[in-house]
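User: Predict the complex.
Assistant: Input components as received:
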Amino acid sequence: MSTLGLHAGELVVDLDVFQGPFDLLVTLVLREEVDLWEVSVSRIIADYVLRLAESHEFDLEATSQFVVLVAALLEMKSRLLLDLETLGEDEEITVEEAGEELLTALVRYQQHRNAGEWLKARWADNAGRIYRRVPLPACFRRAHAGTERLPASLLAAAMAPLLREPPLPDTSHITDVAITLVAELRRLRSLLAHEGGFTFLSVAPRDRLEKAVTFFALLELHNRGEVSLHQARAFADIRVTAVRPEAVLAG
Amino acid sequence: MIDPLVIADLSRQIEAVLFIASRPVSAAELAASCVADPAVVDQALGRLAEEFADSRHGMELREVSGGFTFVVVRDCETAVEAFAGARRPDDLSPALVETLSVVAYLQPTTRAEVARVRGVSSEWALSSLEERGLVEECGRADAPGSPILYGTSARFLTLFGLRDLTDLPPLEGFAPGADDVEELRERLVAHAERRRQ
């Protein structure tokens, strides 16, 4: 996992089922577009704590926000464990009911564990057996299409699912980029005209994609010789300074 | 009463088909190949099994994974392994056996259902079982997101020495006893009490 900061919105999680901001993950889980069973909450916590230790900073507000979101995930996951998805959010369950649900789940789990023991014994006894595995001689490997005539409707029924257009994937959770490169160029030029310069982080929007558009706009301005860019070291903020027209001409 | 000579002749034909086959062959396929009555094929298979029983040969007849095939007898395995470089498959971890049990009994089933039964994410376990060829995808569920359905493979039947899935004992037989359930209940109550204090 890598982070741009330790706010939940900036914390980037990298799981098998999801890669992106942590708060978006929580939103998708709430909208049931990411299966909570597949989300390893312990891994998210461990990575967050690691990043927190590495940053040598402690932002109480950001950490509190993270704890609240993680607690919400854990509560949802514990409700899943009790198989209570059908229960409304406002409906409460008594301790006794929760106990019975958990007991039922444990008994079902124990059943499969016991069945696993039986399978394990079968494995020990059979996995090493050596069956005849010699491939069929090449001369016999002709495919037989069969002699009986098949109705065309059967072929059509077999082909139909392959020809059907699959439904479009749901992209409603993907945020549209609100700004365009042209609009961002206009905004940055206006800022340069009034202020003569600025730093990248002071003008970049919060959204990652929009931030990328700002970055591309800066590169474009630099390419056209309208600005000079200075970065003290890798990953440090970028200082943007307007280049005077005469300097451009002279250059 | 079927002529013993007919049975003997059919068992030789079956032996020949199984010699050339690269996979277990079902009784129905044998009946079609040998143009014989299924009941007679059953008797011929019985005779063939007897002939190859009691370690009289280096292999024996076995019904596995939906058909009949020859398997090396146990006391000849070392020689075959040395010749062919065959190696016993790596053992399964408890997590893999547990996941396999859930898939075997609930198939076709989804990753989420397996996780629901086990109480933990089973993504890695299912991928590992798929890599080992014990579990395979068998369609998509008619549910939101069309999750992938998983089932056990023919290799699963072979490696566990099962003829088909009906060889799996009923799951009900693995239910914990009343005493065990009561003990679980008491442990849950005791845990809840501790949390309340």
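Chain A touches chain B through 48 residues (CB under 8 Å).
Let me know if you want any component modeled separately.
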